[in-house]
Design brief:
It is a single chain. The chain has 2 domains: 2-104 and 238-280, Periplasmic binding protein-like II (D-Maltodextrin-Binding Protein, domain 2, 3-Layer(aba) Sandwich), CATH 3.40.190; 106-229, Periplasmic binding protein-like II (D-Maltodextrin-Binding Protein, domain 2). Helices cover 40% and strands 22% of the residues. It contains 11 helices and 10 strands. Strands 1, 2, 3, 4, 5, 6, 7, 8, 9 and 10 form a 10-stranded mixed β-sheet that branches. The chain is elongated, with a radius of gyration of 19 Å. It starts with a helix and ends in a 10-residue tail after the last helix.
């Protein structure tokens, strides 16, 4: 197990360096003709492939990886031309921005493989991440021990989805760990038998395929993949959006980006990265 954890720690470092490199590629304000695409951390690997495709077609595009909240702030402020985010738009945001669903994702609650917890309900999730309960024995999981909730940082679209679904406040109580990516959460939970977190279903499947010691907890009786959560009542099914400002000019780069995401290549990219393409929606 130890060598698998060290291997994944190496991947985590590589993931962070990749994100920093992508952020450094953000187009300067005066570079006209360059499409500035900002993307959430969840969508960063997919966005990087999309950018490469647009560049191969002659499009000028730069990628900046941030959280969904920051991505929308940059878009609204004119610091970005398009954003790939991992949550739906609020009513207020929809008045200023155009969001198009380009895929779907499912979040799964995960614990260490030795944790006896197999299922939980909405109230249990809310109690854990609000710190209303702090010991596993309080929710009937084995002989007890301190619960270590692992969440995402403020400004992260994944965190927004979970907070909204379960009515969790935005203030982080003491004793909660904040991490920035799916991979970081996977590694933390695999290393700490007391931890519980949430990750994209695609990240969970990749971790299991590599023998990482985590397991998914059934929520309301389900642990659906992205494809099977579409159209269901699973609370952690979320849309993935391409967002632009209302009445934004239809530049060549923007049209190339939209065509890539909306075509067969885009559908293949979403499926390969563990998401569901819009075509599977009813």
């Amino acid at each position: 197990m130890a060598h698998r954890i060290f291997r994944w720690l190496g991947l985590l470092v590589l993931s962070v360096l990749t994100s920093l490199a992508a952020a450094a590629e953000q187009a300067p304000p005066g570079n006209r003709g360059m499409l500035r695409l900002t993307a959430s951390a969840t969508l960063a690997p997919l966005a990087a492939e999309v950018v490469e495709t647009v560049q191969r077609k002659g499009g000028r595009i730069a990628l900046n990886v941030v959280g969904s909240e920051v991505a929308l702030e940059q878009l609204s402020a004119g610091q970005a031309d398009a954003a790939l985010i991992s949550r739906s738009l609020s009513e207020g945001e929809s008045r200023l921005l155009d969001g198009r669903i380009v895929g779907h994702d499912s979040l799964l609650l995960v614990v260490h493989e030795r944790n006896p917890l197999t299922q939980i309900d909405d109230a249990g999730v809310r109690a854990i991440f609000s710190r209303q309960v702090s010991d596993w024995s309080q929710i009937g999981a084995g002989n007890g021990g301190a619960i270590v909730p692992v969440t995402r940082g403020l400004g992260n679209g994944t965190r927004t989805v979970v907070d909204t679904a379960f009515g969790i406040g935005r203030v982080v109580p003491a004793g909660i760990v904040e991490l920035g990516t799916n991979l970081a959460v996977v590694l933390y939970v695999a290393a700490d038998p007391q931890a519980i977190g949430y990750v994209s279903s695609g990240a969970y499947e990749r971790a299991r395929q590599r023998g990482v010691g985590i397991k998914a907890v059934r929520l309301g009786g389900f642990t659906p993949s992205a494809q099977f959560c579409v159209g269901s009542h699973y609370p952690l099914c979320r849309p993935l959006l391409l967002v632009k400002r209302r009445h934004a000019p239809a530049t060549r780069e923007l049209m190339l980006l939209e065509a890539t995401l909306g075509g067969p290549l885009g559908e293949d990219l979403f499926v390969r990265h563990g998401f569901a393409a819009p075509a599977v929606a009813p």
